[in-house]
Amino acid sequence: MCGRYATTRSAGDLSSLFEAVDETGGKLVADYNVAPTDPVPLVRVSAEGHRTLSRGRWGLVPAWSRSPAGAARMINARAETVATSRAYASAFARRRCLIPADGWYEWVRRPGGAKQPYYLTPADGSVLAFAGIWSVWGGSDAPLLTCSVLTTAALGELAEVHDRMPLLLPPQQWASWLGTGGDPTGLLAPPPLDWLAGLEIRPVGSAVGDVRNDGPQLTARVPSPQPTVPEDMTLF
Questions:
Q1: Which of 88, 102, 150, 194 has its CA 20 to 30 A from that of 42?
Q2: How far is 177 from 98, CA to CA, in rounded Å?
């Protein structure tokens, strides 16, 4: 986790929800099947101190990297090691962001080897904010804005689908995550169980497994499979 997610709200909606200035330049589009290195919206604090809605690429490329070729392996940063990792520590200390999402996908291996995808999303349709970090790679002529999603140990019913989950930030924690100063490791606590209980674990069709597929049909509920104990917690 997390290797696929959906983010479909417009730049106008996200700017309003996150009280941010839209700097996406009209390039933000709905994506029901975000995959590594795809363009995604993110909310960060500008040098002037206000929130901005930006469009970056999913898969962090540290400024010191020789090339962005390894970005697909950098889509997630573990909350347990983000503060000490050479690749992520600088961004975690000074460049945290919110990554808006409608929900994310996980796969559970069924008896016989087939994998059942699930879409995890707020039951009330509200927006999610993944805890994220960002970096800029390249020269001033063509800077590349990139980001990673922080993950943590899954809790509650989510642990029945996968052993990891994105670090989810309730609205009352958005300002703290975007803030500067102090020791940020105190921000890594997972959300309370009663808040996580508001997430729906929805079985969806297998079409989401192909990154070429997109559209609202990917998040549509399908008949629930017979309950079993997951044999494998592997994403793909």
A1: 194
A2: 8
Q: Using an 8 Å Cβ cutoff, are 51 and 36 in contact?
A: no
| pLDDT, tens digit (0-9, with 9 covering 90-100), for 211-224 | 999 999 999 999 98
Q: Give the pLDDT of residue 142.
A: 80
Cα(98)–Cα(164) distance, integer angstroms:
19
**pLDDT tens for each residue of 180-212:** 877 899 999 999 999 999 999 999 999 999 999
